[in-house]
Write a structure and sequence with these properties.
Layout (H helix, E strand, L loop, with lengths): L1 E7 L2 E6 L9 E11 L1 H8 L9 E2 L3 E9 L11 E4 L2 E2 L5 H4 L10 E2 L11 E5 L3 E3 L6 H4 L2 H13 L7 E5 L3 H12 L3 E6 L2 H9 L3 E4 L4 H8 L5 E6 L4 H10 E9 L13 H6 L3 E4 L7 H10 L9 E3 L4 H10 L7 E4 L4
Parallel strand pairs: 11-12, 11-14, 12-13, 14-15, 15-16, 17-18
Antiparallel strand pairs: 1-2, 1-4, 3-5, 3-9, 3-18, 5-6, 6-10, 7-8
Length: 339
């Protein structure tokens, strides 16, 4: 089969590799669409601390059930599915309490094991989610990033009664905007990039210019109260630290962005009690794929409309382009030429 292989930082090639065989408890999926996300770009640029080269990347996978390993059952062969790429051990405390996304020995398809930048991929059969009728593989590949938005909104307990400020209008920020809007919330978005902010506005968010003066603009909009819910999706420590000023007393902060390992983030201690603020982390997603797929099927998610499709053979060019200029594309999805 054909696969795009990361050999080392800044090196990716298309090659023929053996077709994987599903083991007990596993399924073989014929890949129809494979989304490129920031995590894949980190592998390409050498910034992912967990990957061991060579590696077939991609954890945003839509396709068709091809075969099962011995003694394994699941959706019938030919069923269109998306793959939840997070594999928990099932034994540690997070797994025991239903938080396998925080597993102490977490394995991620496309990072710790071969991923979807290939004609076929194997996965645990329990990680399959059937695709609703009417969705293409291209659209279904957005289930994973949309699920991250679902998880973030669940963590922040976002409802139609809320006003939400999203910091960062990149791929994850846009997913949060769309999910929060679908829940009926009033959504504001801010970013340093005018282009990204314009895209967030096209998706229904009210844009607020980022940078100097952001706090003053937010306080003016909210009559000095601050935002009831602040969702951080920049991965920048200064933005994380500013959330405490931007949030209203009694409000909720959800941190989705990632800083480098060991980097600290400081909050003024008095505001924990003065504002009685709730600060929550949100990692990937758990049991959010069904809701994400339903949202995509409902037409409430417009993210796929601003994405670009490519054949897998174009992967080396696409990765180089995005590494040189991350703003070159809103989103890239590699679609099987056989689909």
């Amino acid at each position: 089969m054909q696969a795009a292989i990361f050999d080392q930082p800044r090196s990716i090639r298309i090659a023929d590799v053996p077709k994987p065989l599903p083991g007990p408890g596993e399924v073989l999926v014929r890949v129809g669409a494979a989304g490129l996300c920031a995590g894949d770009l980190y592998i390409y640029t050498g910034k992912n601390p967990y990957v061991i080269y060579p590696r077939i990347g991609c954890h945003e996978i839509a396709g068709t059930v091809e075969a099962y390993g011995q003694g394994t059952a699941g959706p019938k062969v030919g069923t269109r599915v998306v793959v939840d790429p997070f594999i928990g051990c099932g034994h540690c405390y997070p797994c025991r309490v239903g938080k396998r996304n925080c597993c102490a020995d977490l394995a991620i398809i496309g990072v710790h094991r071969e991923g979807g930048f290939a004609d076929f991929v194997t996965a645990p059969a329990t990680n399959l989610n059937p695709v609703p009728d009417g969705l293409t593989d291209f659209e279904a590949a957005f289930a994973e990033p949309v699920a991250i938005g679902v998880q973030g909104c669940r963590r922040g307990m976002v409802t139609a009664d809320d006003t939400v400020l999203v910091l960062g209008a990149g791929p994850i920020g846009l997913a949060i905007v769309e999910v929060a809007r679908a829940l009926g919330a009033k959504v504001y978005a801010t970013d340093l990039s005018a282009e990204r902010l314009s895209t967030a506005a096209d998706m229904g968010a009210t844009p607020i210019a980022g940078g100097a003066g952001l706090l003053e603009r937010v306080l003016e909009i909210t009559n000095g109260e601050g935002m009831p819910v602040v969702m951080e999706a920049t991965g920048a420590a200064p933005a994380m630290e500013q959330t405490i000023d931007l949030v209203a007393a009694g409000g909720r902060i959800v941190i989705l962005g990632l800083v480098k390992k060991g980097q600290g983030v400081t909050f003024p201690g008095l505001d924990f009690t003065r504002k009685e603020v709730t600060i929550l982390g949100s990692r990937a997603s758990v049991d959010c794929f069904p809701e994400a797929l339903d949202l995509l099927a409902s037409g409430k998610i417009h993210y796929p409309k601003i994405a670009s499709s490519f054949s897998l053979s174009e992967a080396p060019t696409v990765f180089k382009t995005l590494a040189d200029n991350p703003m070159a594309l809103h989103k890239a999805v590699f679609v099987s030429e056989a689909v």
